[in-house]
């Protein structure tokens, strides 16, 4: 394995140029991507429901485990590749360069020429609520499985923590990274004012 490059690539790019004009005309509170909003919550909530009810529905641990892992995998792919771009204009991924070094890339959609937000506030709330709440529930499940000595379920629960936690970490880095330049500009300005005094 190669050491992770300490300098992450943070770019400000337009992910959907064709959608910019449409998004300017839409209301902020309107859900412009109902299918994406539905699937953003569907897979992650379904995995939690199956985990809670699987012992009531079937006695087969293997069937439950495969179903939960499939739902978690579908959720990871959908949130990372589709719903993040559509709902909040953020995207992240990892790429390996020719030297074999790993780079994490975090992207944010460009702000429109009028300076208005291209993301709906309602969609943004749904996205972040689902993104933060569900990994917390899987962490609770992990402690519950650990303290109740349900070792066979611990692997399944850890998959939930890892997959959903990775998306949460990636999108938090995207959100913070998009403000990084603004923060450094403000710090430099305040430093200069302090030195003048």
From TrEMBL:
Transmembrane segments: 34-53, 59-79, 126-147, 153-172
Keyword Membrane among record annotations: yes
Keywords from the named record: Membrane, Transmembrane, Transmembrane helix
Cell compartment(s), UniProt: Membrane
One GO biological process term: protein secretion
Superkingdom of this protein's organism: Eukaryota
Membrane topology: Multi-pass membrane protein
Pfam families: DUF846
InterPro entries: TVP23-like (IPR008564)
GO CC terms in record: Golgi membrane
Annotated PANTHER family: GOLGI APPARATUS MEMBRANE PROTEIN TVP23, GOLGI APPARATUS MEMBRANE PROTEIN TVP23 HOMOLOG B
Family classification: Belongs to the TVP23 family.
Protein's recorded name: Golgi apparatus membrane protein TVP23 homolog
Species whose genome carries this gene: Cinclus mexicanus (American dipper)
């Amino acid at each position: 394995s190669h050491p992770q490059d300490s300098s992450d690539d943070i770019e400000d790019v337009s992910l959907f140029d064709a959608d910019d004009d449409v998004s300017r005309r839409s209301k902020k509170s309107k859900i412009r991507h109902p299918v994406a909003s539905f699937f953003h919550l569907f897979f992650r909530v379904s995995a939690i429901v199956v985990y809670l009810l699987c012992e009531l529905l079937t006695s087969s641990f293997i069937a439950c485990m495969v179903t939960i892992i499939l739902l978690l995998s579908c959720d990871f792919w959908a949130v990372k590749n589709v719903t993040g771009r559509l709902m909040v204009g953020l995207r992240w991924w990892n790429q390996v360069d020719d030297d074999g070094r790993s780079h994490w890339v975090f992207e944010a959609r460009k702000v429109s020429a009028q300076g208005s937000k291209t993301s709906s506030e309602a969609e943004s709330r749904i996205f972040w609520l689902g993104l933060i709440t569900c990994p917390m529930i899987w962490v609770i499940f992990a402690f519950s499985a650990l303290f109740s000595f349900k070792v066979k379920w611990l692997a399944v629960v850890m998959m939930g923590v890892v997959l959903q936690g990775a998306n949460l970490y990636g999108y938090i880095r995207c959100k913070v990274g998009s403000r990084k330049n603004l923060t450094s500009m403000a710090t430099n300005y305040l430093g200069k004012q302090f030195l003048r005094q």
